[in-house]
From TrEMBL:
Domain named 4Fe-4S ferredoxin-type: residues: 70-99, 100-129
GO molecular function terms noted in the UniProt entry: 4 iron, 4 sulfur cluster binding; electron transfer activity; metal ion binding
Gene3D superfamilies registered for this protein in UniProt: 3.30.70.20, Electron transport complex subunit B, putative Fe-S cluster
Short name of one Pfam family: Fer4_21
Protein's name in the database: Ion-translocating oxidoreductase complex subunit B
Organism: Pseudomonas cavernicola
Amino acid sequence: MIRIQAIDALLPQTQCGKCGHPGCKPYARAIAEGEAINKCPPGGVATIQALAELLDVPVLAPEIPPIPPQIAFIREAECIGCTKCIQACPVDAIVGAAKQMHTVIIDECTGCELCVAPCPVDCIDILPLPEPEAKAQRERADQFRQRFETHQARLEREEARKQAERQARAERVAQPQLQQTAVATDPIQAAIERVKAQKAAAGTLTDQQKRLKIEAAMAQVALSKAEKQLATHGTPALEAQVAELRTAAVAVQAALQAASSTAPAGTDEAALKKAKIALAVRRTELKSAERNGAEEAELVRLRAALSDAEQALHAAEEASGKPPPELVRIDKQPVDVRLRALKTELAYARAEVNKLERRSGADADTLTKARARLAEAERQLHEYAPA
């Protein structure tokens, strides 16, 4: 144990995982068991030499190119407050809240880069540290180790609390069954307790319902974020992503409603509800495929599935005995394809100019071309006269 602590004391405590281990302490333990000493990019040559001297082994060339001291920087104007970087930071060096701007505490950041990948809007930069800030970061290894251990302890406490809450819920669900067993000798009381247990079971979510409820919430959150990004940037890739997320959200919501239905599976009311959900899913799938330019064979299959869903809904409505809804026909004007294309081009051009103007290091020539594109899009839209 003393040997592991001595090795760990020589590591930079970035907790980056680039050595293939989930932190500096696990890598120190692996080195004590015979693993190579040259797998720490943030430590570089200096760490390799210190480890070689401590362990009395030959100095090796770095297996991965060394990484100089660095920190993370969040472009706060682009942050959407998703908290994914906060969850990824191993030393709790990022502060913020859901749907609020996040920022990095410079003196606590190890430069591990673990916050970059989870960011859905790519608003985090990794910046090199100049001297003397780089030297000061190297001297804070003990501080980083303590923050990492505190972070791990907090995660363990939260997991233990969640386990205790799950256990308590399970015991509450099982309690009516124990009471029913205790009064089984009294037929009348047993019948009363049986009815109570059935009501309690009916009001308790099953594991499947809980899972679907969580998936539905996560799908809705992902869809909302993607829609915001589409409104800001308006790229075809984001449009396709929004369509896919909307289809997934509808499908998960349909599955949740089907699992949460209190009516027996064979009743006409439940069949009517399922038919309506199936029709909504088929309609969404077809619209998504048409927007994404799917092949004609795929469109034919989806149209046939939509037609079958419509027939199934009509049959379920007739079987339910409910009066058909009163439909009001509204004549819609055809979409002006040219006008829509001009408005789309204007939105793309405006989004590009806004993006370049927010970027401090944007190329002047690129910005000039983007503004010219915006002016041309505005002119064409202003001069367009619908037929």
